[in-house]
Design goal:
alpha+beta, Ubiquitin-like (UB roll), Cathepsin D, subunit A, domain 1, Helicase, Ruva Protein, domain 3, 6-stranded mixed barrel, 5-stranded mixed beta sheet, 45% helix
């Protein structure tokens, strides 16, 4: 079929084309006739621009139809405005943003492939747009650097030890990257943030969000929380000490029994009181065992009393932001509390550190010494030796972990 194209200076150019011809090919023919580069042409049909990928017949262009071609060449000033600085940021971020917003297809692709960049384009924060442009430039530069290094390694001297080391490292890193890509495709939830297990409870009538931690030996309450719940008056300071674990916290004492309400049922509970301002209330293994609790992750509930009560674990939206920021502190406190609880309880059971205790300093030293010994026992047990054999070896070598290990391996 024949189409007629009017140029900006009102000249008519007639072209013989196929209805299935692409607009891009028509522009290539016009480039020969008008000397206007294809990239700077805008082809209009009935006042509407047609895209390069469109077919003439698909957009309704028929034999003897009239189209118009105009030059879309940007001015030198506009070209400069759309340029990039050496660090990858835009010379004129507002102009670049306006230009990118005009291409709806590009925006749609970016929302699929790079939603962060797309959001910066459609948003109003130009500083954020500049930050992302710099970050993308840095990523591209790093990728080019790695590609250049890989290319250099291909031609490296096979007898060069340093080059062979780099090749080995590149192969190892490639395996890591492939493993990461496989995880991203088949196990994407592994990259999501995991919210710890919290449930609603009442301690002495005061509602709290309890951190459920089966990895902590003892149930822990902070001094400030115990005071808020009216329990600090029951603090038995004869059980004070120093708890060592992932972190270190002072054990202020013990509250032997107080009511906690889970669901609609009250249960007796005992607490270690720690000087841990970043951790409020932790429901540990001692009370989980005592009240026959079940952590049901399939139904996302905590079952108490063998199933007589089921309370749901809280979602992230139900937790104050400080809880999410302080989870690591709570974990450190729980680890400290677990170790301290074990040492303190053993000491108070086997010595006079109970009601007839003379003071807290002795308890503190005993707790620390007991914790060090238990840590050595646990480390050797993890190597596959029986606990009785480990205890005997450590006692024989006066607690020397290395000599005990050598003796166990030699036996």
């Amino acid at each position: 079929m024949r189409i007629n194209v009017m140029t900006a200076d009102e000249q008519i150019i007639s072209l013989e084309v196929d209805p299935q011809e692409s607009v891009e090919n028509v522009k290539a023919l016009l480039e020969v006739e008008t000397q206007v580069p294809l990239q700077q042409q805008q082809l209009l049909y009935n006042g509407r621009e047609v895209r390069n990928s469109d077919r003439l017949g698909a957009v309704g262009i028929k034999d003897e139809d009239l189209l118009m071609v105009v030059s879309a060449a940007p001015s030198s000033a506009a070209t400069n405005d759309l340029g990039l600085n050496p660090d990858g940021s835009a010379v004129n971020p507002a102009a670049l943003q306006r230009q990118l917003r005009q291409d709806s297809n590009l925006i749609a692709q970016l929302f699929q492939n790079d939603p962060e960049f797309a959001q910066a384009i459609v948003g109003n924060d130009l500083n954020r747009l500049q930050e992302i442009l710099r970050a993308r430039h840095g990523q591209r530069s790093e990728l080019r650097r790695k590609q250049e290094e890989e290319l250099a390694l291909l031609y490296a001297d096979p007898f060069d030890v340093e080059a062979q080391r780099k090749i080995e490292e590149a192969i190892r890193q490639k395996g890591i990257d492939e493993n990461w890509a496989a995880a991203l495709e088949y196990n994407p939830e592994a990259f999501a943030r995991v919210v710890m297990l919290y449930v609603d409870m009442e301690v002495n009538g005061i509602p709290l969000k309890a951190f459920v931690d089966s990895g902590a030996q003892s149930t822990i309450i902070s001094k400030s929380c115990a005071e808020r719940c009216g329990l600090l008056r029951l603090l038995d300071e004869r059980y004070k000490g120093i708890a060592h674990g992932v972190g270190q916290s002072e054990i202020l004492g013990r509250i032997h029994v107080a009511p906690i309400k889970i669901g609609n049922i009250f249960y007796p509970c005992s607490f270690l009181v720690l000087d841990a301002p970043n951790m409020e209330f932790l429901f540990g293994l001692d009370m989980l065992r005592k009240h026959q609790c079940i952590i049901d992750l399939k139904e996302n509930v905590l079952r108490v009393g063998g199933g007589e009560v089921a309370v749901p674990f809280l979602q992230e939206k139900d937790l104050p932001s400080r809880f999410l920021d302080e989870e690591r502190s709570a974990k450190q406190a729980s680890s400290s509390g677990a170790s301290g609880a074990s040492g303190s309880a053993d000491k108070n059971t086997t010595t006079s550190a109970g009601p007839a205790s003379s003071g807290g300093n002795t308890a503190s030293g005993d707790v620390t010494q007991n914790l060090d010994f238990e840590a050595k026992v646990a480390k050797l047990v993890e190597l596959g030796f029986g606990r009785d054999a480990v205890l005997q070896a450590l006692k024989f070598f006066d607690g020397n972990e290395e000599q005990a290990a050598g003796y166990l391996f030699g036996g």
